[in-house]
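Objective 1b. Sequence-to-structure analysis of Ubiquitin thioesterase OTU.
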Amino acid sequence: MLIQISLRSPNGQSRIQIEDGATLRELVELIKTKTELSSFTLKYGYPLKPLDISSSSQDKSILDLKLRGETIVVAPTDTAPPPPSQPAPAEPTPKPFTPKGIEPDGTSLEWPERGGYIVTAFGGAIGLENPSRTLRNQVADYILNHPNEYSKAILGDEPQRYTTRMRQMDTWGGAIELSILSDIYNLEISSIDSLRVDRFGEGKSNRVIILYSGIHYDRIAFCMDLSYPVEVDVTRWATDDNEVLDKARQLAKRLQSLHYYTDTTDFVIKCEVCNWIGQGTRGAAKHERETGHSQFGELQITD
């Protein structure tokens, strides 16, 4: 029987098939062919853990390793050639892959225990093409398909008007939208806002982590090397992995010191319900208390 395995490497993401009775040696050779890499390490699972591909382990069967449906991250290694006067060793010892021109900065946090970095970056944690439009449409459809759960009393407006605004690219989402996405994708969504962690969908097996900047949400990801493409980033973790939450909060604290968070006290805000225009989040909060309106967008001022 053929089993499916996903690969993430510096060349991008791909999928391979292999017989479940195949050996680890055959898998390694298949990965070499697929990625065009001759030397690498392999990691898999949530959180990532190394897959032992030493010669003593390569006779193990794929079935015994329980790799069906797994995603394997392929990290290339360099091997130093031996001096010409000496015979080559039977198994050259790999040395860590060296980043090609990308050095860590304040927007990343080294995680040596797991051999990589926690980073924040634009892009979807769920992994979709055109994620903004797709997620907006999914949330809007979910609301309209659950009228008893998402009524005018919950949304602060008629569901049809609310979802029409939500489909527009300049409208913000918030707690309601995160809760819905948690149900759609069966994921806990942990949102870090000024070092506070809000969890949506507690009790699920896996989580994604996002960081609220004051205007938008950015993903938290793990990468083994900053020069790798974003396709190989790990953006999902087991919900019992509290260490990754601690690391994400540490990164948020560092970003806070770099003024990553947008100062929302002075920018101009427009109410999407009645077209009221005001200034900053305090003005928006006052308007919400007075009218019950809770949908706001930033008003772009142009010369």
